[in-house]
Amino acid sequence: MVVEFHFPDGNEKITTFNVSKQLQGYDYGIGIITIIVGISVSIIFYQMYYLPESFAKPAVAEHILNPIEQTNISMIPGSANPDQQDNFVPKLVNIQLGIDNHVIWINDDDTPHTVTPDHSIADSYSGPFGSSGVVKAGEKYEFLFTESHEIEYHCEPHPWMTGTLIVTKQRF
Prior knowledge:
The protein is an alpha+beta fold. The protein folds into two domains: 2-55; 62-168, Cupredoxins -  blue copper proteins (Immunoglobulin-like, Sandwich), CATH 2.60.40.420. 20% of the residues lie in helices and 32% in strands. The protein has two helices and twelve strands, in the order ββααββββββββββ. It has helices at residues 25-55, 62-65, and strands at 2-7, 13-18, 70-75, 88-89, 92-96, 102-107, 116-117, 122-123, 127-128, 140-144, 149-154, 162-168. The strands form four sheets. The chain has a four-stranded mixed β-sheet with strand order 4-3-6-10, with no helix packed on it. Strands 5-12-11-7 form a four-stranded mixed β-sheet, with no helix packed on it. The chain has a two-stranded antiparallel sheet with strand order 1-2. It is elongated, with a radius of gyration of 34 Å. The relative contact order is 0.15.
């Protein structure tokens, strides 16, 4: 490669340099090693600092995580019958965070039921609300609410079975 410089200051000098350096094999190796080290550092940072923070559960006050009481909701015998008016007892439940926000649905019926929200909802600490499958006879489904919500829910195989939860902050 030939590089020429022209200096227009009155002394028309033309300087010519002949640059003919070939890159050696180790120059490519150093470049590749630099790229590998950079990618490795990025992956380590992502796994050690970014991921744990993004998946961390939010800080919740101790009195909310360990409420004074629990709320029991019964799926009473005969709930699978559409003619029966009562099924989730009680149907409307007012819950206060830190007082009775640990809710337990108990299946006292002979038929399996579900606890399914009408609209998808998730608590930032406890995760998505709703039973992951059927609640068999004699079994229970538990959920700990840590945020204010108003939730309408039903039983998937028996849509006439409905209930409502109103979760609010403590009044005092």
